[in-house]
Amino acid sequence: MGLSWFSSSGRAINPIGIESGSTQIMSVHQVHVFISHSWAYSRHYETLAAWIFGQAWRFGQASIRFHNYSVPHWDPFVDLRADRLLRDAIFRQIRRCHVIVIPTGMYAHYSAWIGKELDGAALYGKPILAVDLWGARRTSSVVGRAAHRHVRWNARSVVGGIWELYYRGV
What we know:
The protein is an alpha/beta fold. The chain has a single domain, classed as Hypothetical protein MTH538 (Rossmann fold), CATH 3.40.50. 36% of the residues lie in helices and 21% in strands. It contains 6 helices and 8 strands, in the order E-E-E-H-E-E-H-E-H-H-E-H-E-H. It has helices at 42-53, 83-95, 107-110, 112-124, 141-146, 155-168, and strands at 5-6, 12-13, 27-35, 57-59, 62-68, 99-103, 128-131, 149-151. A 6-stranded mixed sheet has the order 4-5-3-6-7-8. The chain has a two-stranded antiparallel ribbon with strand order 1-2. Helix 2 crosses helix 4. It is globular and about 50 Å long.
């Protein structure tokens, strides 16, 4: 299945910008996304969340509704000092999602949470989308090795990567 994006005017545009024919919607997909993030680098999370959840997306004849299953900013799990409680809380979020999105910034290499998120992804068989930050010269090898797909830092590649991992059922 080829990927096509649809603008808000309903005009279909494939990944290389060529318009396609019909914009009739044949199906709606509810895709649950977990975005890994560090509160110290919340700009990355906010940008990814705006790209993914801030607008309606369509691929081919499928309408996609992305739902945010990330750790919410209003309940950031900071009170879970016990390692087991923190791991269990992260696993609960990951268990309910379809795709995990992880920025590959170097902070990911040192995050206490990343290991738990990667373990949860492996335990529940969730695909990981690694997003290379714009202008980054170094990336986290831990995330890179675990990722099922890598994309660049832009809305179309991130959303297209999520859809591909969800649709393929990796």
